[in-house]
Amino acid sequence: PEYAGINREALNKSLIKEILSEEREIIHEKGVIGKENLKIQPINKEFKSKKYDKRMSCMSSDIGLRKRYIFLFKTVSKMAYNAYKLLKQGICNIAFPPGTILPGGRIMQELSKTQFYEDLGSCYT
Predict the structure, then answer these.
(1) Cα torsion at 89, 91, 95, 98 (round to 10°)?
(2) 45: which residues sit within 8 A by CB, 6+ positions away?
(3) Which of 49, 55, 74, 93 could form a disulfide with 122 if both were Cys (CB 3.0 to 4.6 A apart)?
(4) How far are the Cα atoms of 27, 40, 56, 69 from residue 59, in angstroms, in the given order?
């Protein structure tokens, strides 16, 4: 009922025009594999998910800022890993870098309760 007064041919032409413009946008964004590549490509080609591709740890248009951030991130990560290794050895009076979290679970269970309670204040600094 809502399209009763509209010319059917004009409506079809406008819909086709709209669909073609959307197709052009999609092709422009993603690209098309092409006739020759499609012929060459094996039919049982495996799909590679982008889920496990390389990922950016920092996205910034300022290259200098991005490099400084990545350097800081790697430095803090190394410091946290070294503190973690010491914690695994049973040394509890170590300081983790700011912004990192003290590991829990089995490592904390393996530490003797007396040593852990004695050094509790310095573990969380």
Answers:
(1) 30
(2) none
(3) 93
(4) 27, 37, 6, 10
Task: Report the pLDDT averaged over residues 96-107.
Answer: 78
Is the pLDDT higher at 23 or at 116?
23
Nearest to 88 by CA among 105, 111, 60: 111
What values do phi and psi take at 22, rounded to 5? Answer: -65, -40
- Ranking 5-14, 17-26, 50-59, 108-117 by mean pLDDT, the lowest is 108-117
Task: Confirm if 60 and 66 have CB atoms less than 8 A apart.
Answer: yes
In contact, 103 and 73? CB cutoff 8 Å: no
Rg of the chain over CA atoms, in angstroms? 30
d(CA 50, CA 59): 18
Cβ count within 10 A of residue 112:
10
